[in-house]
Design goal:
The chain is built from 16 helices and 20 strands. The protein is of the alpha/beta class and about 550 residues long. It binds 1-deoxynojirimycin. 1-deoxynojirimycin binds next to loops.
Length: about 550
């Protein structure tokens, strides 16, 4: 049975909106809040309970809004505060809460705090940021590199010191050691909570406790103290879902962030299943061949570690990652089957599932051919650096097409109209040319669509406590082609078995997986019992529940 600790957001599905690319209501080529409001009915029929809204705050958009110049204003291209209030109200009327994206590791260099801070060493807000003298003899204070490439320090001529920026030089890091900064952040969070938002997604929250003088960026010594203070000063005592983005998190750390008695967050959004596919030296720009056994090892580790305490976020993609079906499925020969397989495998796991806009219709990576078509600051920076280091242009484009962030940022494909019906103007980034075939309108008209499959999974999670709270047990761990697991709650059991490849596979099924009852999800013919042996078609996934 669901325990007394059970929370509403455990059975809800979160849908992530990247506002710039979701729906443009005024033809300026940029998505906006009225556009989102016009699509709430669609999201309601999908069944989601929460929208994670990527940043909509005032920003020069150096990093598409992850560089905030005013935490309490809306970017004019996205709309007004009135539009935002209307979004909160209209979403609530449909049973949907809004998670705001809290970007408080850094601001924009156009934030008034930074403008003041860089005006003089004695400036009132100087200590809101991280300043250091040049190294003895000159040059950067430390060798720390920015995540977007190049040094993480930029020299400020006027005041003769360097400031820290772990992302672009236009995203100066905030100094969380300063209690006045922390108080301002909490006040701002309370202001948004009072406007009726449901909770927060917290951008790179693992970086706020940094101790740069000791070379520590992620997971710093005071990190959990800050999060506990934030909890006490803001959302603590409410049922607000909070999800901390934490690339550095281990399962042990996740228990600190999300343990029930810790007074911190609801869950962490961690990436070990993503990064285990990356090259040791070259990261995502040099992907490794897909290894299902390694992927399962990571998923299992997290499922087991957070079995009794803490909570997982479940996702394949977001605005920083390639499209799920292109990365883990086959977006050519088996697009529909593999997108459904991935959805099935994910939604039956223990944790809260996240659907990234367009994933629910099986949107794919984009086949850009020239660097001119890319927009992402990270890709453009890396292009410059990698070409200067001798990488051929075509290799870089191939890497960017496989793993670059723009794959997830092309316009949402609503219909077969020009630019996928996203805008009547010229979109800020080109739509995927496959929008004429892959779009919401076509999906709604097709019972066998990826969308219909997602709707079913999202609904099932609200109906079946075993899907939310059941004990997780993996099976066939060493099998290179199949992922299999069971969820058990009281006398109820669900067995999930999936083929991750484009060729059929037969396997002997362990006893605990042999479940008879009814088909819960299928991407070929429904299967109501799993016996001693199973034969799976390319990318077939079945979920069977005991009666
Ligand atoms: C993580 C966000 O998801 C990403 O889009 C952004 O560029 C960095 N944090 C910096 O805010």
């Amino acid at each position: 049975m669901p325990s007394a600790q059970s929370k509403w957001w455990q059975s809800a599905t979160v849908y992530q909106i990247y506002p710039r690319s979701f729906a443009d209501s005024n033809g300026d080529g940029v998505g906006d809040i009225p556009g989102i409001i016009s699509r709430l009915d669609y999201l309601q029929t999908l069944g989601i309970g929460v929208i994670w809204l990527s940043p909509i705050f005032a920003s020069p958009m150096d990093d598409n809004g992850y560089d905030i110049s005013d935490y309490q204003a809306i970017a004019p291209e996205f709309g007004t505060l009135d539009d935002f209030d209307q979004l909160v109200a209209e979403a609530r009327a449909r049973g949907i809460g809004i998670l705001l994206d809290l970007v408080v590791n850094h601001t924009s260099d156009e934030h008034r705090w930074f403008i003041d801070a860089r005006s003089a060493r004695e400036a009132a807000y100087r200590d809101f940021y991280v300043w250091r003298d040049p190294a003895p003899g000159g040059g950067v204070p430390t060798g720390l590199q920015s995540i977007f490439g190049g040094p993480a320090w930029t020299f400020d001529e006027r005041t003769g010191q360097y400031y820290l920026h772990q992302f672009s030089r236009r995203q100066p890091d905030l100094n969380w050691e300063n209690p006045a900064l922390r108080a301002e952040i909490y006040q701002m969070m309370n202001w948004w909570l009072a406007r009726g938002i449901a909770g927060f997604r917290m951008d790179v929250i693992d970086l706020i406790g940094k101790d740069v003088d000791r070379g520590v960026t992620a997971n710093g010594p005071r990190l959990h103290e800050y999060i506990q203070e934030m909890h006490r000063e803001t959302f603590g005592g409410s049922d607000a879902p909070t999800v901390g983005e934490a690339w550095s998190a281990t399962p042990e750390a996740a228990l600190l962030y999300s343990g029930r008695d810790r007074g911190e967050l609801s869950m962490v959004f961690q990436f070990e299943h993503v990064t285990q596919q990356w090259h040791e030296t070259w990261g995502k720009w040099q992907p490794k061949p897909f290894d299902l056994v390694a992927l399962k090892r990571v998923i299992n580790r997290w499922q087991y570690a957070l079995a009794d305490d803490g909570w997982n976020s479940l996702f394949w993609g977001n605005h920083d990652l390639p499209r799920a079906v292109s990365k883990y499925g086959d977006d050519k020969g088996f697009r529909v089957q593999s997108a459904k397989m991935l959805a099935t495998v994910l939604h039956f796991l223990r944790g809260t599932p996240y659907v990234y806009q367009g994933e629910e219709i099986g949107m794919t990576n984009v086949p850009f051919t020239s660097i001119e078509q890319f927009r992402d600051i990270e890709t453009l920076n890396m292009h410059r650096l990698h070409l200067a280091a001798g990488l051929p242009e075509s290799d870089f484009i191939a890497g960017a097409n496989a793993n670059g962030r723009d794959n997830a940022r092309t316009p949402m494909q609503w219909s077969a109209a020009p630019h996928g019906g996203f805008t009547t103007g010229t979109p800020w980034i080109e739509a995927n040319p496959n929008c004429a075939e892959i779009n919401v309108e076509a999906s709604l008209a097709d019972d066998g669509s990826v969308l219909a499959h997602y709707r079913r999974l999202v609904a099932l999670r609200k109906e079946l406590p075993v899907m939310v709270h059941g004990r997780y047990q993996s099976h066939l761990d060493g099998h290179p082609q199949i992922m299999a697991y069971t969820r058990t709650l009281g006398g109820q059991r669900v067995a999930v078995i999936a083929n991750f490849f484009g060729r059929p596979v037969a396997a002997d099924v362990p006893e605990e997986m042999q479940v008879a009852g009814k088909s819960l999800a299928a991407n070929y013919s429904p299967v109501s019992a799993i016996g001693k042996q199973v034969l799976l078609q390319p990318f077939e996934a079945i979920a069977v529940g005991s009666q």
